[in-house]
Amino acid sequence: MLLAALALLAAACSSGKKQPPAAATTASTTATTQAVRTLALKLTTTATGPERNFNARKAAQQASPSVQKFLDRYLTLAFLQPSQAKSGWRSLLAMFDDPVRVRAGKQLDSLSLGRAAAQVTAVQPGPARARAVVLYEGGRAAAATVQLSFDGTADSPRGSGPVRLRAVLQLVYGKSGWRIAAYESRTGGGS
User: Which of 5, 37, 52, 62 sees the fewest Cβ atoms within 10 Å?
Assistant: First the structure.
């Protein structure tokens, strides 16, 4: 069966004629590709706090899910949804604390796909790793320093190429959850 499919594919490619796309095949191929290539962020969390008898292990376990969710959302908005550019990256910029939001809006190329998003049709996520140190105060998570790295492959009508992020994010925790208060970030295509 596989050989027959490959033979048909080879015949269609070498015939020089453009074949109309089969909608059902395209949809199932896309669904399969998306199911196979999901974002898998590996997060290592530690915690520190000034309280006596502070249980760093328990605190890290307590903070890890919310940090994981925040970083997954950040990477998804910044790299896996190129259509975010059409909204001016509104959802991504909402993840930044008010004092740095305007600056982040001017530096989107170092925080996301940025201007390149207009040419990108999809990004296939590769390795994503983060190390977070969460600072506790008064028995609650107050801030975190996160070293974040992400690698992927961007697809465009002209071909595919590597996408990469290396960042250090300073997060603060408030009423609405985690926000980026400061950052040092760079993106690029090489290693």
Answer: 52
